[in-house]
Design goal:
This protein is mainly α. Helix content is about 65%, strand content about 0%. It has nine helices and no strands. α4 packs parallel to α7. The longest helix is centred in the C-terminal third of the chain and has 24 residues. It starts with 13 loop residues before the first helix and ends in a 12-residue tail after the last helix.
């Protein structure tokens, strides 16, 4: 397989250099997967725009989506990144494993979200009607359903980018389950 190098700031367009600078200022680093988007003059800015969209989901709910999709797609990069982000948002190591297994016994509403995300991802946008109904009956709105689908798409993009490029993971590596 062709090796994908992680581009440095000096190797990317001026627009991407500014995004690198903002990432470094904001989070202290340019994650390898973000840098990989910068092979394109347009993809990194498009992805950052997608990432910064407002959402009706809470940060914890977003991490449930990110972890479930990344587990299904077997993306060690995204599992590692979102394990770290999940911890920053208050999840314990044990809870993160339960989220990844879609066995959330500590929050019924998050379980309904995780089940909907799992089915939607596995069935490529065709979850069971029961899963959709359980999602809505758990207290989620139609707006949150739409935002969940957008977030699933967001995570599929990064899962696939890592799956193709296999750039090094630059977060503490998530445990295998």
């Amino acid at each position: 397989m062709k090796t994908f190098e992680v581009p440095t700031r000096e190797q990317v367009s001026e627009t991407n250099q500014h995004i690198f600078d903002n990432l470094k200022k904001g989070i202290g680093m340019v994650p390898n997967l973000y840098a990989t988007f910068a092979h394109s003059d347009n993809a990194l800015s498009s992805y950052v725009t997608l990432q910064s969209m407002k959402s009706s989901l809470s940060n914890k709910e977003k991490e449930v989506v990110n972890l479930v999709v990344s587990q299904i797609n077997d993306c060690i990069y995204c599992l590692s990144a979102h394990t770290a982000i999940g911890k920053m948002n208050g999840f314990s190591d044990e809870q993160i494993i339960k989220i990844r297994k879609v066995a959330i016994d500590f929050d019924a509403k998050l379980q309904a979200l995780a089940q909907f995300v799992k089915e939607t991802t596995i069935e490529r946008g065709h979850p069971s009607q029961a899963s959709v109904e359980a999602f809505l009956e758990a207290g989620y709105t139609k707006a949150q359903l739409v935002d969940t689908i957008v977030l699933i798409g967001d995570k599929i993009i990064t899962n696939y980018l890592h799956g193709v490029t296999q750039v090094p993971v630059d977060f503490p590596v998530a445990v295998a389950i």
